[in-house]
């Protein structure tokens, strides 16, 4: 046994030489790259720089929907949902969409009253409900009239 232990060669050393070469080399290259960029030796394009053409002007208007208080749930277990929102529309469509406000309120009342409290309390519910309400607003107003539904207040009491 002692002979076997004596004749066994020690495992080869892990090469620390690579670490001693690679680490200073990486620092040197990183520092050189930083200096070249910082001093202006390398031309770096600016983030968000325009290419000579102005950005198209977006004309957006917001049509407010009045605050709704909706009773949600069965008779024994009722809660009140306080809801208010704005509709994002093109400026050209603002008057036409504002004229449809009573229809929007009717659709929202019908939809929100049909919900169960469990559906509203779910953590991801607001995203799903917002998408549903936006689609309903787009159907009422017509294609391309309503861009987005911005929920201002959504509180379950």
Automatic annotation (TrEMBL):
Predominant location: membrane
Entry membrane topology: Single-pass membrane protein
UniProt keyword annotations, A-Z: Cell inner membrane, Cell membrane, Cell projection, Chemotaxis, Cilium, Flagellar rotation, Flagellum, Membrane, Transmembrane, Transmembrane helix
One GO cellular component term: plasma membrane
One BP annotation, GO: chemotaxis
Recorded superkingdom: Bacteria
Stated role: Controls the rotational direction of flagella during chemotaxis.
Family: Belongs to the FliL family.
Record's protein name: Flagellar protein FliL
Organism: Rhabdonatronobacter sediminivivens
């Amino acid at each position: 046994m002692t002979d076997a232990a004596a004749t066994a060669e020690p495992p080869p050393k892990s090469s620390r030489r690579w670490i001693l070469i690679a680490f200073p080399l990486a620092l040197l290259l990183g520092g050189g790259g930083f200096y070249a960029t910082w001093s202006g030796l390398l031309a770096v394009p600016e983030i968000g720089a325009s290419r000579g053409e102005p950005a198209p002007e977006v004309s957006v208007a917001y049509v407010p929907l009045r605050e709704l208080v909706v009773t949600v749930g069965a008779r024994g277990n009722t809660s009140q949902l306080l809801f208010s929102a704005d509709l994002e529309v093109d400026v050209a469509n603002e008057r036409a969409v504002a004229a449809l406000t009573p229809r929007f309120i009717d659709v929202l009342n019908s939809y929100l009253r049909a919900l169960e409290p469990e559906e509203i309390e779910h953590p991801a519910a607001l995203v799903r409900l917002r998408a549903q309400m936006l689609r309903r607003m787009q159907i009422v107003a017509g294609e391309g009239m309503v861009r987005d539904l911005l929920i201002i207040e959504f509180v379950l009491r």
